[in-house]
């Protein structure tokens, strides 16, 4: 993969910036979390980690049992903790974390050195892009992605590549925030949220992605809104950890105004 393809904001945010160190996150994960069932009275950093693990579990449960024969790839695996959790808790045959940023792949290998030693043939981290996946045709049973697709410049290449690497009947599970359709939502998000204004996050309407999946040969395309489990819990945690003007505090009003929502999208390779 040509490293010049990494968008400048993604290069900075996950390079020297190392977003996982920001106060909004905890434990090395970099997602907004699934707060269902977590007591929001006074959320702790441990609760924050738990919320991020729960988001992974929600995605991984979407792969059918028995899981011990399934070979998976995670796209946008960050520090690789989710891929290690997938192996440890869900007992997949193999999981390869793929990330566009070489610094993230290096961090994932260092942070998960023990897991890599425990599962030498079953866990790996490698460089690759959503629209240029480092796998041969029909070689995987599953592809998943957790809070990374908002960074992909466009989603048709990701849909096409996921279809290519999955065997017929293989499953794709993607979770992140998708935007409301139309230029108005994109413009308002750029005003509200620095991450949209500077191009780190790209406004992807949900139906753009589901249509791309169908056109790429996926069937049974479903989407579930989980915003109610993400934004109120996240914002409660942020109240105690970042100033009220911090950009991440603007996700809750953006969700309440209907400008974006968090979804889990599933699809089956036809
Ligand atoms: C918000 S982090 C999420 C990391 C991890 N999934 C988690 O939940 O902790 C997004 C990750 O996606 C990666 N990424 C961004 N654009 C990508 C692309 N086009 N292909 C593959 N990875 C990408 C970034 O480098 C970053 O590590």
Can you tag this structure with a few keywords?
Rossmann fold, seven-stranded mixed sheet, 270 residues
Describe the structure.
By secondary structure, this protein is an alpha/beta fold. The protein has one domain: 3-Layer(aba) Sandwich (Rossmann fold). Helices cover 38% and strands 20% of the residues. The protein contains 11 helices and 7 strands. α2 crosses α3 (81-90) and α6 (156-165) packs parallel to α9. The longest helix is centred in the N-terminal third of the chain and has 16 residues, at 45-60. The structure holds S-adenosylmethionine.
Task: Summarize the model shown.
With 270 residues, the chain is α/β, with parallel strands linked by helices.
Element-by-element helix/strand order: HHEHEHHEEHEHHHEHHE
Beta strand %? 15-25%
CATH-defined architecture: 3-Layer(aba) Sandwich
Largest sheet: 7 strands, mixed
Q: What is the general shape?
A: globular
Structural class: alpha/beta
CATH H-level homologous superfamily name? Vaccinia Virus protein VP39
CATH class division: Alpha Beta
The count of domains is: 1
Poorly predicted spans: none
Helix content: 25-40%
**N-C termini distance:** 28 Å
- Find the count of extended strands (DSSP E, 2+ residues): 7
Say what the CATH topology is.
Rossmann fold
Radius of gyration: 17 Å
The average pLDDT score comes to 96
What topology emerges from the helices and strands here?
Elements: H1 8-13, H2 45-60, E1 71-75, H3 81-90, E2 94-99, H4 102-111, H5 113-118, E3 123-127, E4 140-146, H6 156-165, E5 166-179, H7 183-192, H8 194-197, H9 206-215, E6 218-225, H10 227-241, H11 251-256, E7 260-269
Parallel strand pairs: 1-2, 1-4, 2-3, 4-5
Antiparallel strand pairs: 5-7, 6-7
Helix pairs in contact: 2-3, 6-9
Bound molecules: S-adenosylmethionine.
S-adenosylmethionine (SAM) is lined by residues 10, 14, 29-31, 75-78, 82, 99-101, 104, 129-130, 146-148, 151-152.
């Amino acid at each position: 993969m040509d490293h010049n393809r990494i968008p400048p904001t993604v290069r900075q945010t996950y390079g020297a910036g190392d977003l996982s160190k920001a106060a909004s996150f905890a434990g090395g994960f970099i997602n907004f979390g699934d707060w269902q069932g977590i007591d929001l009275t006074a959320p702790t950093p441990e609760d924050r980690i738990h919320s991020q693990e729960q988001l992974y579990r929600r995605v991984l449960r979407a792969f059918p049992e028995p899981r011990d024969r399934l070979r998976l790839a995670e796209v946008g695996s960050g520090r690789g903790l989710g891929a290690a959790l997938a192996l440890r808790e869900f007992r997949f045959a193999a999981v390869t974390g793929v990330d566009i940023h070489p610094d993230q792949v290096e961090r994932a290998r260092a942070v998960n050195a023990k897991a890599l030693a425990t599962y030498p043939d079953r866990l790996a981290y490698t460089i690759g892009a959503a629209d240029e996946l480092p796998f041969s045709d029909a070689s995987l049973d599953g592809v998943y992605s957790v809070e990374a697709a908002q960074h992909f410049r466009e989603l048709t290449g990701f849909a096409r590549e996921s279809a290519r690497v999955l065997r017929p009947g293989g499953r794709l599970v993607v979770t992140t925030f998708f935007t409301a359709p139309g230029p108005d939502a994109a413009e308002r998000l750029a005003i509200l949220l620095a991450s949209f204004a500077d191009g780190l996050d790209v406004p992807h309407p949900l139906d753009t992605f589901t249509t791309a999946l169908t056109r790429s040969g996926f069937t049974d395309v479903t989407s579930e809104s989980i915003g109610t489990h993400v934004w109120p819990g996240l914002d409660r945690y942020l109240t105690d950890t970042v100033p009220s003007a911090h950009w991440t505090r603007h996700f809750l009003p953006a969700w309440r105004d209907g400008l974006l929502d968090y979804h889990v999208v599933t699809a089956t390779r036809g």
